[in-house]
Amino acid sequence: MSNEVLDTQMDDDTVLVDRLADRLDAGDRFASLMGTDTDEGLRLTALLATPDTIEPFDWVLPPGTTSYPSLTPRIPAAFWYERDLHDLFGVTAAGHPRLDPLTLPLSDDSERPVPGRPGAPWSIQPDEHILPRLVVGTGLFTIPHGPVRSGVSESVEFLVETPGEDIPELRVRVYAKHRGIEKRFEGMDAATGVLLAERVEGIASVAHALAFAHAVEALGGVRPPRPARLIRTLHAELERIANHLDVAMRLADAAGLAVATARFGAHKERVLRLVGRLCGSRFGRGVVVPGGVRALPALRPDRIRAEMSALASGIMPDAQLLMNTSSFIDRLRHTGVLDTDLAIDHGALGPVGRASGLADDDRIRRPYDAYDELVWRPATPWVSCDARARLQIRFDEIDDACTLIDQIVTELSTMDPATPLCRSVGFADGRGIGWAEAPQGEVLYVLEVSDGRIRRCRPRSASFHNLAVFSHTFNGDVLTDFAFIEASFGLSMAGVAL
Amino acid sequence: MWVLRGLRNGVVTTRYPRRPDAYESSFPAAVGVVDPAARLPGVAGVCPTGAIEADEGGVRLDRGRCILCGSCVRAHPEVFSWAAGSETAATDQATLVVGDEPEDDDALSALRADLARRVRRLRRSVHVRHLDAGSDGSDEWEIQALLNPVYDVHRLGIFFTASPRHADILMITGAGARGMIAPIARTLEAMPRPVVTIAVGADAISGGLVSPSYATSGGVGALLPIDVWVPGSPPTPFTLLHAILLALGRVPAGREVTA
């Protein structure tokens, strides 16, 4: 092989980066970047969110290629994705500003997981010694938070670099929870795959199961029957309410408001119990199956309605009181500001994006299940870009969820109970892309099937995408704001390092 | 204002364990084997996590591997069924296998005696430290729920602590991610003795659906000695509360054996 061939390849790659960047300038959103090991070499896939769908862009690095021109200088949102690619495949993004390990720190000669390649490594031990430890700056020191945090929370390590009070630099180490999920999907059938999808990010089980099922249904060209679409939407919205209440609870806890913490905790428990009574799992697990849903809700529609109205009349006055508690709001206002420009550049997802003026929401732009059949007007994005806006948008979304559920319950009560709840969907060979709007934001699944088995499955959670921008929200904020900013993002670490 | 709001709904706290709780006893927290003597040679293939074993002796189900997906109940309702009741934690991993003849009682009572000796001074006031070793995030929600006013474990003298140095009980979730092996060792080292450990969830007991994987240890049992095993995916707050009380020998008499 001559150098010339390689150079041509590099030129092609550069052209592709330009094309992608042009599309982003024209208004598309950078949604994901992933790799797949194939016989022809490493295939890189960038996903762009267009106004009405998610579009893949593929390019293949021939076997033996160890680097490609980095996307990050032109497309900052690719920053974490290229670090993840390096960890999983060992491929280097040439020109990347800081290609530190992210999801799996390994020395250069280590065996890597290489998703898409048949077979899996037996055991890979993360090597924390190769992580950079140098802090440069006058009077700067590092405060490590984690990986074992205070309180009951998931493992993650935040390295706060500080001169004493403000936070000029924050590093996030997410690898502690890496579970090898992508390799684990390989070889599974659709029925088992959806169970694993529910466990990728356990507090958004329904959204992950939906995104996975949508990918399978896209492959098979099947749309679930109407009752199934309604029941899916019911569970997705209940999950949203529970997650948003959890954020409210954690924020109240950070402010030391004991009664508010207890109240929102009790509301959340009530939602989880309702979900449990509907389907037997407090997290809505087992509801979504490719092609439809497993069963009708175990509660009669009028009982669901009664329970929902009791819930709403408990939550809404508390939400109002919380947003009017000045000692609380003072901590959130102008805290953790994510500028609209930065949010657009990064393509911030979910409530985090919507609190910074972005209107993108898969339920509206790229509707699925029953969202385009119900009458609702999604909450207007907020523009104050701070932790307060991120909480306010969540309360708005709880309100929307109640509206949606009310309509779903009405439709379910007039539904013929004999209507089928699931269409048979084959596991056709090919590649399917599925998405769903989780409480944290858009969840994306790219699913490749061959011979009726999963060849490659790449979940991308909103938690991963949004955590990358988290460290850019500390302008002028101090150490005691940390808990508020973190809680206001509402992310789950399980969905980050996979 | 919040003071008045706090009084609005009266007492919402459960009286469990002193009084039975309808939600605790009705929740389908496990799968049971109705007909352990059934001959179903190919039934093991129904289970995605290999929790079911079948041979000439009959059918057994390991709740430590069960992720409660219900595949077996749908495929063979005459053999498997949902079991109501959240008190499913056990001090011996082998007793999580239902459908089997009870193991020899001597080993089990030795295990319990050892645990009882360690918890003698902890019974009335105990501090719990949680540690995530690669969970999916839902286990943390259910542990956190123990602090909400519905469960309010403070009333039982159970407190969660921010530092392992103040902790008596270590509740550990997740399949044992390799990136957490060193932090687990450091946390355990920092705890004062005696230490009681609780493995929370099917992932922590056996690796659940996440294992086998290059990045996990197939459960935390391989990483540290475990005193109480809590099945579930995730276990409900009542199951977790039962597990803590079981560790402390505070489960009311006559309710300890479930299966």
From TrEMBL, chain A:
- Tell me, what is one Gene Ontology molecular-function annotation carried by this entry? oxidoreductase activity, acting on NAD(P)H
Residue numbers spanned by region Disordered: 104-123
Hydrolase as UniProt keyword: no
Q: Where is the NADH-quinone oxidoreductase subunit D domain?
A: 267-413, 429-495
* Superkingdom of the organism of origin: Bacteria
Tell me the InterPro entries matching this sequence: ComplexI_49kDa-like (IPR052197), NADH_Q_OxRdtase_suD (IPR001135), NADH_quin_OxRdtase_su_C/D-like (IPR037232), NADH_UbQ_OxRdtase_30kDa_su (IPR001268), NiFe-Hase_large (IPR029014)
Pfam families documented for this protein: Complex1_30kDa (PF00329), Complex1_49kDa (PF00346)
* Swiss-Prot/TrEMBL keywords: NAD, Oxidoreductase
Q: Where is the NADH:ubiquinone oxidoreductase 30kDa subunit domain?
A: 29-105
Designated name of the protein:
Hydrogenase 3 large subunit
Q: What broad taxonomic lineage does this protein's source fall under?
A: Bacteria, Bacillati, Actinomycetota, Actinomycetes, Micromonosporales
UniProtKB/TrEMBL annotation, chain B:
Give residue ranges for domain 4Fe-4S ferredoxin-type.
57-85
Query: Any keyword Iron?
Result: yes
Gene3D superfamilies recorded for this chain?
3.30.70.20, 3.40.50.12280
Q: Which SUPFAM superfamilies match?
A: 4Fe-4S ferredoxins (SSF54862), HydA/Nqo6-like (SSF56770)
Please, which domain of life does this record's source organism belong to? Answer: Bacteria
- Please list the cofactors this protein needs: [4Fe-4S] cluster
Tell me a Gene Ontology molecular-function term this record carries.
Answer: 4 iron, 4 sulfur cluster binding
In terms of InterPro entries, this protein maps to:
4Fe4S_Fe-S-bd, Complex_I_20kDa-like, NADH_UbQ_OxRdtase-like_20kDa
| The entry's keywords | 4Fe-4S, Iron, Iron-sulfur, Metal-binding
Similarity remark: Belongs to the complex I 20 kDa subunit family.
- The molecule here is called 4Fe-4S ferredoxin-type domain-containing protein
Q: Which organism is it from?
A: Actinocatenispora comari
